[in-house]
């Protein structure tokens, strides 16, 4: 009797490990859809837009707003230069290979959430972001849009969101100073989150992994997963639900429409 039980338990364990490995790969390890390594090796045949940032741009944990934009704007080639866990310092190191090498017509920058979470000093963040913009400006003729950072947790009145306010102020002032465009992602999300009680920031990797498992294994939408935890725009207090991603897609699409018509 022991052998069949052992075999059954081994099969259950192997299945669980396989499922966990699949979720881990899909969430944390796989490259973004149409990344710079594939896109930038070719000559663009349409105006190329590079969306640069961290995990919110990569779109493997939470909704993929870059893919939605790609589907809505086939006249453009959308390159996803998001990379999980990146700070401004990380993005600065890969500007040449992941942005300039693509010869973009337009570039969006959504970067800084991990700087806030990691306690990167505001002056250092500002200097890194300035260096990224300067490098893109001098190395390309691309239009540049700086995006304000989404809230961390949906309660806007927490210490981490008060800290975030300074980083968003730096983004907006830098856009004005350097003559780039500015997309008010945070402001649009805050307009929604001001109504009703909201959950405070409580991100953890187990929470993120559980959310990813529900999405990739159980086929639940990011909106459904967030709602089950009492959230509306942030799956795991950081990453975007389908509704939040649609907001970012619309802001960016309206910006691209402005570029087309200007």
UniProtKB/TrEMBL annotation:
<dbReference type="Pfam" id="PF13472">
    <property type="entry name" value="Lipase_GDSL_2"/>
</dbReference>
<keyword id="KW-0732">Signal</keyword>
<dbReference type="GO" id="GO:0004622">
    <property type="term" value="F:phosphatidylcholine lysophospholipase activity"/>
</dbReference>
<feature type="domain" description="SGNH hydrolase-type esterase">
    <location>
        <begin position="53"/>
        <end position="191"/>
    </location>
</feature>
<dbReference type="InterPro" id="IPR013830">
    <property type="entry name" value="SGNH_hydro"/>
</dbReference>
<feature type="signal peptide">
    <location>
        <begin position="1"/>
        <end position="19"/>
    </location>
</feature>
<dbReference type="InterPro" id="IPR051532">
    <property type="entry name" value="Ester_Hydrolysis_Enzymes"/>
</dbReference>
<protein>
    <recommendedName>
        <fullName>SGNH hydrolase-type esterase domain-containing protein</fullName>
    </recommendedName>
</protein>
<dbReference type="InterPro" id="IPR036514">
    <property type="entry name" value="SGNH_hydro_sf"/>
</dbReference>
């Amino acid at each position: 009797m022991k052998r069949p039980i052992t075999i059954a338990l081994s099969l259950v364990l192997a299945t669980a490990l396989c499922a966990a490995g699949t979720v881990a790969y899909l969430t944390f390890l796989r490259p973004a859809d149409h990344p710079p390594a594939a896109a930038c090796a070719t000559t663009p045949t349409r105006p190329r837009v590079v969306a640069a940032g961290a995990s919110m741009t990569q779109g493997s944990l939470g909704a993929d707003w870059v893919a939605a934009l790609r589907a809505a704007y086939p006249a453009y080639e959308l390159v996803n230069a998001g990379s999980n866990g990146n700070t401004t310092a990380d993005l600065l190191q890969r500007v040449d290979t992941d942005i300039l090498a693509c010869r973009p017509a337009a570039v969006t920058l959504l970067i800084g959430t991990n700087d806030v979470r990691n306690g990167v000093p505001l002056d250092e963040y500002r200097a890194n972001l300035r260096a990224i913009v300067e490098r893109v400006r001098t190395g390309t003729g691309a239009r540049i849009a700086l995006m304000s950072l989404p809230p961390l947790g949906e309660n806007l009145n927490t210490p981490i969101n008060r800290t975030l306010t300074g980083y968003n102020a730096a983004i907006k002032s830098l856009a004005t100073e350097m003559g780039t465009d500015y997309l008010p992602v945070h402001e649009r999300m805050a307009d929604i989150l001001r109504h009703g009680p909201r959950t405070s920031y409580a991100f953890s990797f187990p929470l993120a992994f559980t959310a990813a498992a529900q999405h990739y294994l159980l086929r639940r939408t990011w909106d459904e997963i967030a709602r089950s935890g009492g959230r509306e725009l942030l799956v795991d207090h950081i990453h975007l639900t389908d509704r939040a991603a649609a907001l970012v897609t619309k802001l960016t699409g309206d910006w691209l429409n402005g570029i087309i018509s200007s």
